[in-house]
Every structure is written in structure tokens, then in C-alpha cells.
Amino acid sequence: MIKEVLVVEGKADVIAVKRAVEAECITTGGFHITRRTLENIAAAYKKCGIIILTDPDSAGENIRNFLSKKFPEAKHAYIPRDEATANDDVGVEQASPESIRKALSKVRTLELNPREEFTAAEMINFKLAGGKDSSKLRDKIGAALGIGYGNVKTFVRRLNSYGVTREEFLEAVALEATEQRTRFTNRNF
Fold first, then answer.
1. Can you tell me whether residue 13 is helix, strand or coil?
2. pLDDT level of residue 112 (50, 70, 90 thresholds)
3. pLDDT in tens, 10-47
4. Beta partners for residue 6, in sequence order
5. Are 28 and 37 in contact (CB under 8 A)?
6. Domains of the chain (ranges plus CATH)?
7. What per-residue confidence (pLDDT) applies to 182?
8. How far apart are CA 46 and CA 5, in angstroms?
9. Cα–Cα distance measured from residue 78 to residue 123, given in angstroms and rounded to the nearest whole number
């Protein structure tokens, strides 16, 4: 049983979450969140905390940003886009129970005073910016770190805002490099 209340977008998301874990959920009903829904989220936030688990798309990101401003100590869970896509649709409801559990195992909280540990310029050295596969690589590293996908600016902001350590980052980069070598070797045989 997850002690925090999960904030998801819709009823289908609740069904998917309940297949994966035992948890209470509140639905936002999309971006047009009613005053009553905000009151329910605020009550859960004060009582036991909330975890924001929105769809990995622009609408989900807008909802997450809106809720983050209202509830700055909320926790965040991200399902990678490729794990939340099925039937030409992207959303929590498309994710497998395993993907939902994995996202919830990597919950992060925004730091009130983000660090300046990582820079956009530095991402070039790690091939996370400026290359033809940089976007895919950021997606994989973001999934490994539990911070989701973002363009370079968003990715760096999340690295700094979610308290990702240099050690965690380097470990995720090294793991992905090892997996890339394995995929390359397997393709050539």
C-alpha cells in the first residue's frame, strides 16, 4: 500500500494504477481542474502527501507544472513515454503494471532551492545534446533516473531540481553506454 495519494488525470489511469499497486487516487479530469478537486488534492497533500503521476505528454506536463506550483513538496513519478504508449495513445492507462511500479519506485521530490550541479553545455560531452540520438538518450537516462523525458533545458532543470547526484547521473550514463554496446554487438552477430 502506497501511503501517499496518487494524482492522475483520468478514471482509466486509476484502473491502470490499481492493477499495479494498492493506492488511493484522485483524478484531475484533465487540465480543467475544479475547485473541489483542488480542495481534495490539498487535503491529501496535508494529510499524507501526494505523488503526481501524469501522462508523459505535453498536457500531462502542463498539469504536473500547475500542481507543482500549488503543492511544492509533492512527489513526482514519471513513466517513460515508450512504456506508456499503446494503440496510438500515450498515457498512464497504457502502461503495464510493471512500468507503473517501476515509476513509483523512483519517486522524486522537487528541491525548494535547486542546485547548479549540471549545465546544458555539459550535456554535449555526454551526448545528451547536439547529436542525432541525443533525444533518445535523454529519454533513457531520464527513465533510469526517474525524472522523465525533456528537452535539454528541461532535462538539466530536472537533474538539478530533483536532487540527482553526480554519482547517480554517471551510473545511469555508464549503464546506458554498456547497454548500447551490447545492442551493437548483438546486431553484428
1. helix
2. confident
3. 999 999 999 999 999 999 999 889 999 999 999 999 99
4. 25, 51
5. yes
6. 1-110 (3.40.1360.10), 112-189 (no CATH)
7. 72
8. 11
9. 21
Q: Which residue, 101, 91, 78, is CA-closest to 150?
A: 78
The three three-digit cell numbers of residue 85, written as one number: 504508449
Cell 549503464 identifies what position? 175
Give 22's contacts (C-beta < 8 A, 6+ positions apart).
1, 2
Reference 104, options 85, 89, 83; nearest CA is: 83
Rg from Cα positions in the chain: 17
CA–CA separation, 100 vs 108, rounded Å? 14
CA neighbor of 126 nearest in space, from 159, 79, 81, 77 = 159
Q: What per-residue string of b and e applies to 37-51 under the rule 16 or more CB within 10 Å gives b?
A: ebebbeebbeeebbb
Q: Give the 3-state secondary structure of 81-106.
A: HHHHEECCEECHHHCCHHHHHHHHHC
Closest CA relative to residue 106, chosen from 67, 160, 155, 51: 51
**DSSP string across 17-57:** HHHH----EEE--SS---HHHHHHHHHHHHHT-EEE---SS
